[in-house]
Write a structure and sequence with these properties.
It is elongated, with a radius of gyration of 24 Å. The protein has 15 helices and 17 strands. Helix 6 packs parallel to helix 11 and helix 8 crosses helix 9. The protein is of the alpha/beta class and about 425 residues long. The strands form 2 sheets. Strands 7, 8, 9, 10, 11, 12, 13, 14, 15, 16 and 17 form an 11-stranded mixed β-sheet that branches. Strands 3-2-1-4-5-6 form a 6-stranded parallel β-sheet, sandwiched between helices.
């Protein structure tokens, strides 16, 4: 049977890993796919570096459109990244009848609706397993393995850099800045770590997972995003004392009012498996109505783990390349004409539990004032820790855990509490999820 010819756009870390996996496991891949799969064209502006990887085994070019428009190419792999030229090249490949495999979560979160519509019209596939959680096959699980289920919610550690930082802060008692510098030294964090530590990368991935879980269009702009830069050693220690660990979670839920789509630091009971995922590893917890909770764990980044997902997509596309487009697995799990217009809730309409840390003056009646304001906002206290002041200290920490409450009620209550003369500075607020 005729081999599948692949064009690769970008042969950097993941592209190099994809080349290596295809070369190393060529026989095994052919046995699974039913025909040989090979990269025959590579586009990269760093031609000398690319030539050092592929030698004379593929045609090299600095012009990516030579690949997207080549008549002998069946599938184009986009590993350039970003949302500018990558979007143009993916749409160009689709327009020229090429199937596309991409690891570009930002591209899909921002432009996925446009790309999938173009692919549907042209009768080609866009595969993106590597866009979320690296080598963890979470896209296939949602699109196929859990297709019998009504997905209720997803909670995931989907950014390894932030998870590494939080793990180190907890294990070693270090502050955020110190651990971030170490993560940069080890290559886990970029020189500009904003996308990782502010939750943007996780929000890109969560947007994709939410669309697959609930059959809604990509809606990245409606995702609530909050990072880990303001977390302190004190909060991590208090959480531990109360039986919780703090993780940066991407959470999307189906509720009676709409879809929740949010990324933020979250207290999770220490006994939960996901609370014990450490370092740069990823883990996604999915709750379906039939199967219950299932956990997917593995390397969320890196050359070979991500390449594993890219090549798996190549195999899937190869298996289905001759199939009637109407009988392929839909891009977003649901048939294109069956996507829902269920609204994504603003963060003020989200209901969850909370951790509050307040710095207060050590005076009688302080706690009574705080609990009165919370009660007025329909916020009830579940647990409390009040530290004794040290010798000569006039201020003390109070830590409260609440039952479930509406975020907009919490916002209003905290504004009133922060105006109390006995409360020093801002109240630290971290959301809490039991993940039952």
């Amino acid at each position: 049977m005729k081999p599948i010819n692949v064009g690769l756009l970008g042969i950097g870390t993941v592209g190099g890993g994809t080349w290596e996996v295809l070369r190393r496991n060529a026989h095994e891949i052919q046995r699974r796919a039913g025909r040989a799969i090979g990269i025959t064209r590579v586009a990269d502006k760093a031609l000398a570096r690319a030539r050092g990887i592929v030698g004379a085994k593929a045609k090299l070019t600095a012009d990516a459109r030579e690949v997207t428009r080549a008549k002998d190419i069946d599938i184009v792999i986009e590993l350039i990244g970003g949302t500018g030229i990558a979007r143009e090249l993916v749409l160009d490949a689709i327009a020229h009848g090429k199937h596309v495999v991409t690891a570009n979560k930002a591209l899909l979160a921002h432009h996925g609706n446009e790309i999938f519509a173009a692919a549907q019209k042209k009768g080609v596939m866009v595969a993106f397993e590597a866009a979320v959680a690296g080598g963890v096959p979470i896209i296939k699980a949602l699109r196929e393995g859990l297709s019998a289920n009504r997905i209720e919610w997803i909670a995931g550690i989907i950014n390894g850099t932030s998870n590494f930082i939080l793990s180190e802060m907890r294990d070693k008692g270090l502050d955020f800045a110190t651990v971030l510098a170490e993560a940069q030294r080890l290559g886990y964090a970029e020189a500009d770590p904003t996308f990782d530590v502010e939750g943007v990368d996780a929000a890109h991935k969560l947007t994709i997972l939410s669309a697959l879980a609930f059959g809604i269009p990509m809606q990245f702009k409606k995702a609530y995003t909050e990072g880990i830069t303001r977390l302190t050693r004190a909060d991590i220690a208090y959480a531990e004392e109360l039986g919780y660990r703090i993780k940066l979670l991407g959470i999307t839920k189906r509720t009676a009012k709409g879809i929740e789509l949010r990324v933020h630091p979250t207290l999770v009971p220490a006994r939960r498996l996901i609370a014990n995922v450490e370092g740069v590893m990823n883990a996604i917890l999915i709750n379906g109505d039939a199967v219950g909770p299932t956990l997917y764990y593995g390397a969320g980044a890196g050359s070979l783990p991500t390449a594993s997902a890219v090549v798996a997509d190549l195999v899937d596309v190869t298996r289905l390349i001759t199939a009637d487009p109407g009988h392929r697995v839909p891009h977003l799990a649901f048939q294109p004409d069956q996507l829902s217009d269920t609204k994504v809730l603003p963060i003020g309409e989200v209901e969850t539990s909370y951790y509050f840390r307040l710095r207060v003056l050590d005076r009688p009646g302080v706690l009574a004032d705080i609990t009165r304001i919370l009660a007025q906002g329909s916020i009830s206290i579940d647990a409390m820790v009040q530290k004794e002041p040290g010798a000569g200290q006039k201020q003390v920490d109070i830590v409260l855990l609440t039952h479930r409450a509406l975020e907009k009620n919490v916002d209003a209550a905290l504004k009133k509490i922060e105006k109390l003369r006995t409360v020093v500075g801002k109240v630290t607020r971290i959301r809490l999820e039991e993940l039952l």
